[in-house]
């Protein structure tokens, strides 16, 4: 057994003395070299014993004289080590992060308007009466289930599909059920009984008493939901004109410009790299062949990776997803600042399209004109009472009967006609009708009768469909019952056998007296008055309130003449003038004859005096034209008289065929199909069909065309803001593409890396959109060049402005690349540091050029208006400060550590960067003084190139 007597602590002491070169301790503590040899059991003359066991024991206890060598590094390990290098890692990460951010931004931009529209279309919570457990209870409509028995009252909406169970004189309005191909769109007032028991969700109860239905289909299985989805899908799946042109343009840039430039640039850079003529970010030339032969695979080092990431970066720059995202941001923020309280934006994309429309189709009644009605004639018996003072001579009996007949049988609510409201207002103010009559009486039965042969009026108002209505009422004081009828005078007169005079005496209505009443009615009709008659009779109470109301042997109470006036709204002329200044044609549709239509159109400012030939046309004549004739004549048409909803739909299709962008204003079920066909649907008012509201882009709450002009003004402002952002973003993208391609092709190096490109795109795409979206509509008249479906998205003015800035920025970048030594005051001794300083200077100057170009983008036409009102635009100035602050932080703190020295030295060069950026202002002034032709600039390159670029 080999025993080693060398102690570890003694060996450590010797090691420490030798390591420290401590000669004193060597002599005193270790007793010199001889003492060390003795401690190590070494014979100075013969060495250690040549014994393998002792040597192995010594090696084990005191250590082996070998070193750990690293294992040979394989290809995968070398690749991983290269990826862990920060310069390479940041390039790849930056590119893929930019892809992710722009895809996410695009998705958010697409999703947000859809979510807004869905939120705006949610139904409010309404309640309905149902019969459960033998008791009537109110529940939310959403809680109705199949099999429920629902109680239907007047003004209720049918909550689900079902079948009629029981009730009296049930009539429903099925206007919301209008579908494509429906022939009968004039009347949807349907009587429901045993022969027609089918009820559909969305219909409105207009008449009936004690009615019940059983539910058979609910929710998405109801017919109404299927129709709503059908119309909604037509509008939701269709791209707006701006979206369509923007998508074509971005696709062209991506596929036809960006991708070829990226491939060509990469091939050129790779060729220079293989030939040893490429330089990396430090200015060093690298040889691909020597790197390929190296065992550490240097060909994967910085230059090659830089070229690959540069190619990807070029594609990122050429994919204008940030452009789409910025446009969505512009629309969103602009809408918040420009739309008024009376304008509800249902679909955000409609704002951009509304800003480019060229024609508006609108109804006359209620939109361009005011429907004023008032009672101007009052006949009691055969005596005309013209003044309020003469009403005092009317007997109390007749006054009480009139108060009952008017107060209980006249609707003043949401579904009250203008005629009803006029009569009720007259009764309150002139007859001093006490509306507490409703609390003193109970209505036992109510019915509405439709006499088709008596339909002599052509107005669109509901009163001419409800020709007569009757009630059976009971007075609470004495429990007596009375029947009251109201309706067209000729119809009611035939139901009477006697009449009251003003003293309350009942007189017989013989043929001679009846002829006199016909003469009175004819006189009012010839004076363009609508004649309404009131009649009634007392009945004996038999407890059977479900029989038909008595329709003969009545006593005539009174005749009233109602004047229907449709004066032009006072603000209409100015609103139409604003539309004409914006190069938007206003086309009026009416069922009136030609002479009436001309008169109203002149009052509204749609027609001038004298009227030009072809400006006013009948619907029948327009339908008789061929498609070619309609396209040729449609521009000249201003008014379509005697028109139907089908004529409006045909007009919209013709305008679109010609290349116009069309908006349709509607306020009834008949306007649903034209609004679906149009590029922009504007629903006027808060009443009407749900389908019309849900498929529209805007809802104008006050039913006034002047509000449409305000929407147009705001939308043009939004469209201009979109154009400003597109011009700004394209300036940035085209400048980057040109700089990357030219520098890579002719100099073999690129002054920007992917981190620079990502930063510029990310910061400016969001903040610039917000800054340019803050512009509000001015009070100045709207003026713009005529647009159309075939007009390019990027106008000649925009091309002029952005190309001027692109050229200036390219000149700045390459001037700094070639003259940086003299500008920075450095010599060749600084080597790699010079390239870091130069690239940092170029990046900072380029970024600040974009920031100062935001000022230029505030006005596309005039340099004088670039700074107009800027002191009031706090949001814009704040964004400028934030952008410059972020750039300062990024340059000073967040660029790669290899650039630290260069960045610190760059602090002295901030003045140079700001000076270069400010020069973009006089450059913009010079450029905007250059006139541009009306013909699109790309068309001068040939029609083939225009189609190839799709702009």
* Individual helix count: 33
The percent of residues in helical segments reads 40-55%
Examine the secondary-structure arrangement and name the CATH architecture of the largest domain.
Up-down Bundle
Q: How many structural units, i.e. domains? A: 5
Largest sheet: 9 strands, mixed
Given helix and strand content, the structural type is alpha/beta
Mean pLDDT: 75
The CATH topology of the largest domain? Calcium-transporting ATPase, transmembrane domain
C-alpha termini separation? 96 Å
CATH class division of the largest domain: Mainly Alpha
CATH fourth-tier homologous superfamily of the largest domain: Calcium-transporting ATPase, transmembrane domain
Number of DSSP-assigned strands: 24
Spans of 5+ residues with little confidence (pLDDT < 50)? 120-124, 178-187, 291-301, 452-466, 896-905, 942-948
Radius of gyration, in Å, reads 43 Å
Question: Which keywords apply here?
Answer:
single chain; alpha/beta; Calcium-transporting ATPase, cytoplasmic transduction domain A; 33 helices; 24 strands; 48% helix
Commentary on this structure:
The protein has 951 residues and is of the alpha/beta class. The protein folds into 5 domains: 8-62, no CATH class; 127-236, Calcium-transporting ATPase, cytoplasmic transduction domain A, CATH 2.70.150; 241-337 and 720-949, Calcium-transporting ATPase, transmembrane domain, CATH 1.20.1110; 342-369 and 569-711, Rossmann fold (3-Layer(aba) Sandwich), CATH 3.40.50.1000; 372-565, 3-Layer(aba) Sandwich (Calcium-transporting ATPase, cytoplasmic domain N). The protein is 48% helix and 16% strand. It is built from 33 helices and 24 strands. The strands form 3 sheets. Strands 10, 11, 12, 13, 14, 15, 16, 17 and 18 form a 9-stranded mixed sheet that branches. It has an 8-stranded mixed sheet with strand order 8-24-23-22-9-19-21-20, sandwiched between helices. Strands 1, 2, 3, 4, 5, 6 and 7 form a 7-stranded antiparallel sheet that branches. Strand 1 (127-132) and strand 2 (135-140) form a beta hairpin.
